[in-house]
Design goal:
6-stranded mixed sheet; Nucleotidyltransferase, domain 5; 929 residues; Rossmann fold; alpha/beta; DNA-binding
Length: 929
DNA sequence: GACATCACG
DNA sequence: GACGTACGTGATGTCC
């Protein structure tokens, strides 16, 4: 219905409704699975009451609920601190947000949000247009920011107090008419939205000044005439800030809309949509009331006890329906199912584990356990078919473009949750198909938040442990070794049960894990440290880093020559040729043939020939020294200069590592294929490998790393005042430790004493033992124990921390980081030789894990912080972030990135110790570090 | 595929 | 009283 003169538009501030609903109700959960649902319940009640109330004499002809799109808006581009002091969304509210969109649609009310804009801007744009077309507008909100829109047929209605706010009411509130509200707010600022305004000027003074001078521009131009010196000075000094504040406060009436005013015509409830939704949410009384209102029968909502007895409702894995999607009609049917559900498990099948090379072969979907589908897209004809038609496609597949065009709106729909197992993989594949999948949940990360330390988080492990089922293996489909084929060569018939089952399993795991999150109190961990990291890492991995093949190749040749020389020497010294790379052969040469001392056999009966052993021999025997040299070079060549070259992507000329989010128990990331977190740096020769990691023309690599982050966190957690003070004063922490322990004044510190103290500091983080320290420092064990005793005497808080942590771990079988990440310690109460390991791991995990949480938080905030700058985040190495930045922007990037990193713990955790970040830049990684 | 070794934080 | 011992990772080569 077209919006014309005489029409009446209602605009509901959806986000305000949600927060009101959330705070008005206790934290209700859905009975059957524990999903937090209180805000959705309140929201639905408010919507229904709104519909009943608005059906009076002044009924709207058009109505819409407008939501804030999550994340960044144009105001953040204007001012990066905009709304920066807002508290994070409560953990149990976040999962309810998509449900409120679904609720609005279920109530058959238009529902809109637009990326990059706030709800207020959309409201402003619609209100302006409605007014221009001669209609009336009622905005259901009490937000003072919307008061600037009042007038000319636009009014606010405070839904709580049921009070209309017209121009007179606005003037009463602000002291200025609606059209001057922006000016007054720009002056007064706003602490809630973090709008600076003019310091020292509140709303009263602002109104006074605006009324006297007419408007803000005139006031600022004539600020010099203000008699009061403080006001005059403030306005002159802060003009830029005031003008920025005005831009932040002023609503954008030109928001680009992807719908029209005419689309908002009021519609009746559709009982076939609304009642099933209410039933799904298990809103019993509201369902009944609305069913009565509509004169239909209320849907039956089974009590959880009833469903528990009827548990076999969830089919087993042998009783499943797996459909093949071969045409657009079938796909459309599935998309309808997905839209009705609001979530879908997704699994992509491809030709490679390397997402940068993989081609999409098919997509599996599942919306309820036991009912999954596979959409084959690029399967090739099987073996035995015409060899010349090798690149052709198997029959019965939809055109890829057509299928993706249908799927894209669903996969990008903010109201539909996409669930995957390790969905970063699928997100990257889809990104290369032009699909930006969101919002997402990841069963691997749900398991990681719930069970880190208990077991791995691969699909097979999870399926076996939590669903009691072994998923179909991929091996029989692909084969192994040389004869292995890629997934596109698997027939669709063979692929179907495998692919469909993976999506099915993923959905079942999600249903098992998601409600647990809340019960185990790790929702915040998952929502703030795991899930938001997925797109950030996906982008970094796709960015890759440029690696210069020629440099590596030159180094490989040089290493090969050196190795050949050493090899000849070693064989000469040994008196025979043997494989130096074989510890077995080397051990026999050293300890059997040459009868050198120190031959210790390991559990397999072979002599140990590791660095420690060889290092002891090297002082007396050239052979050992040469072998050490050979090993060092062999390592550099095989693991780095040779292997890295094979990882350069031929299309991008860059190396694209893959980060495992759930690989390390402590919350650290792990880097694979290749591992770019262990590129040499400690030896001069090794560090030169970093010269091959370069920036593109006109760019520099920029490295920022936390200084001593783990020791700082230890100082905070254990509450060691001396260490805190030392960090606060920027002292050399190892020298200070040495001074405290050995009573050497700082100005008489020797490198040797400092080195020992440094080893002790690190030892403490690792759960120190006399034996370990002795080995590290190559000193007698008794002496090492003496150091430790003295350390604990000097810093008793550290020992207290260790004891506290051990006791906590023993009691709970987990430890946790400052941000609530839990690391399970199932071995802690086991007896036997492994218990020592469990203790030390328990002591280390909160420290290492908290540091990992901090840099995760920094990484998650980084894209917004450097948005608009010619800069890309490339790598993370535990306490370091590496960027590639256009030369002119280096200083700005360092400044912004440092700010994010140093304040990454805020506002959730206030560290007693400041985090500091060192920065460097250069044409390659060696020079940037 | 197990093991030893060694690169990083 | 003996045992095994610094925390967390991933990649490589040898050998079975």
């Amino acid at each position: 219905m077209a919006f014309d003169k005489g029409c009446h538009l209602h605009l509901i501030d959806g986000s305000a409704y949600i927060f009101r609903a959330y705070h008005a109700l206790p934290p209700l959960t859905r009975k059957s699975d524990g999903l937090p649902i209180g805000a959705v319940a309140g929201f639905c009640n408010m919507l229904h009451r709104y519909v009943l109330d608005s059906n009076g004499g002044d009924a709207p002809t058009h109505a819409a609920v407008i939501f804030d799109h999550s994340g960044h808006t144009f105001r953040n581009d204007l001012y990066d601190l905009y709304k920066a002091n807002r508290e994070a969304m409560p953990e149990d509210l976040r999962p309810q947000i998509p449900l409120t969109r679904r609720a609005t649609e279920a109530f058959n009310i238009a529902c809109h949000e637009i990326e990059g804009y706030e709800a207020d801007d959309i409201i402003a744009t619609l209100a302006c247009e409605a007014r221009n077309r001669g209609g009336r507008v009622t905005i259901l909100s009490s937000d003072k920011d919307l008061m600037q829109l009042v007038g000319g047929g636009v009014e606010l209605l405070d839904p709580m107090k049921n009070r209309r706010i017209d121009a007179a009411a606005v003037e009463e509130r602000f002291g200025v008419p609606p059209e001057r509200v922006v000016d007054a707010q720009a002056l007064a600022g706003d602490s809630v939205d973090n709008i600076p305004g003019a310091p020292g000027i509140g709303i009263k003074t602002a109104a006074l000044l605006i009324n006297e001078y007419g408007d803000l521009d005139t006031l600022l131009d004539r600020a010099g005439e203000i008699p009061q010196p403080r006001r005059r000075q403030t306005l002159i000094e802060h003009r830029v800030q005031i003008e920025l504040s005005r831009e932040l406060v002023r609503l954008d009436c030109d928001t680009p809309l992807d719908f029209s005013l005419d689309d908002l015509a009021v519609r009746d409830y559709d009982p076939d949509v609304l009642l099933p939704f209410l039933a799904e949410m298990e809103f019993r009384s509201l369902s009944r009331r609305i069913a009565e209102h509509l004169g239909v029968e209320a849907p039956a909502i089974p009590e959880p006890e009833a469903t528990a007895t009827a548990a076999p409702e969830t089919p087993g894995f042998d009783d499943v329906k797996h459909e093949r999607i071969g045409d657009a009609a079938t796909l459309a049917q599935w998309i309808e199912r997905i839209r009705a559900r609001g979530y879908v498990a997704v699994d992509t099948e491809t030709t490679s584990l390397d997402e940068m090379k993989a081609e999409l072969v098919g997509v599996a979907l599942c919306v309820e356990p036991g009912h999954a589908a596979y959409l084959p897209l690029r399967h090739r004809p099987g073996a035995g078919s015409d060899l010349f038609a090798d690149d052709s496609l198997a029959v019965g597949q939809m055109p890829v473009d057509e299928a993706l065009a249908l799927l894209k709106p669903v996969l990008e729909d903010p109201a539909i949750l996409k669930i995957g197992q390790n969905i970063k993989y699928d997100a990257k594949i889809l990104a290369r198909c032009g699909i930006d999948i969101a919002p997402i949940d990841d069963t691997m990360l749900l398991s990681y938040a719930l069970h880190a330390g208990l077991h791995g988080h691969g699909m097979d492990t999870l399926c076996e442990r939590y669903l009691g089922h072994t998923p179909l293996p991929i091996k029989p489909l692909l084969g192994a070794g040389k004869s292995a084929i890629t997934f596109d060569r698997v027939t669709v018939d063979d692929a179907l049960p495998y692919a469909a089952e993976d999506a099915d399993v993923t959905l079942r795991l999600w249903q098992a894990f998601k409600p647990q999150l809340h019960r185990e109190r790790v929702t915040t961990v998952y929502e703030t440290l795991e899930r938001p990291l997925i797109p950030v890492l996906a982008q970094m991995e796709m960015n890759g880093i440029k690696v210069d093949r020629a440099t590596l190749s030159r180094m490989s040749s040089a290493f090969a020559q050196k190795m050949a020389g050493l090899e000849a020497e070693i064989h000469g010294l040994a008196g025979e040729t043997f494989n130096i790379g074989s510890p077995k052969q080397l051990g026999e040469i050293l300890f059997d043939k040459m009868n050198l001392p120190g031959g210790k056999r390991g559990k397999t009966g072979a002599y140990s020939t590791n660095v420690d052993v060889l290092e002891d021999l090297a002082t007396e025997h050239d052979l050992a020294r040469r072998v050490l040299d050979w090993r060092a070079i062999s390592k550099l060549k095989s693991t780095y200069t040779d292997a890295l070259q094979t990882h350069i992507n031929p299309e991008t000329g860059r190396v694209h590592t893959c980060y495992s989010i759930a690989g390390a128990n402590t919350g650290r990331l792990a880097s694979t294929d290749p591992n770019l977190q262990n590129i040499p740096v400690r030896s001069e020769e090794g560090r030169r490998i970093r010269e091959a990691f370069v920036a593109e023309e006109g760019n520099l690599l920029v490295s920022l790393d936390y200084s001593q982050i783990e020791l700082r966190i230890l100082a905070h957690i254990a509450g060691i005042d001396e260490l805190k003070a030392a960090f606060a004063e920027g002292l050399d922490i190892h020298a200070l430790t040495a001074s405290e322990m050995f009573h050497v004044p700082l100005d008489q510190m020797t490198p040797e004493i400092r080195r020992q103290a440094k080893a002790i500091n690190f030892g403490v983080i690792y759960g120190i033992s006399g034996f370990g320290l002795a080995r590290n420092l190559r000193i007698p064990r008794a002496e090492a124990q003496g150091f430790i005793d003295r350390y604990f005497e000097r810093f008793p808080g550290i020992r207290d921390y260790m004891e506290r942590t051990k006791a906590f771990a023993r009691e709970h079988e987990y430890v946790q980081t400052l941000f609530g990440r839990r690391i399970r310690t199932p071995e802690i109460n086991a007896k036997g030789p492994r218990s020592g390991l469990a203790y030390r791991a328990a002591i280390n995990a909160p420290i290492q894990g908290t540091a990992a949480d901090v840099i995760r938080r920094a990484m998650i905030r980084m894209p917004a912080a450097i948005k608009g700058l010619p800069a890309r985040m490339l790598l993370q190495v535990h306490d370091e972030l590496l960027f590639e930045v256009a030369e002119g922007a280096v200083d700005e990037v360092i400044s912004r990135a440092r700010d994010v990193m140093e304040n990454a713990a805020d506002p959730v955790v206030h560290l007693d110790v400041k985090l500091t970040v060192d920065a460097g830049s250069g044409p390659n990684w060696a020079q940037a570090h």
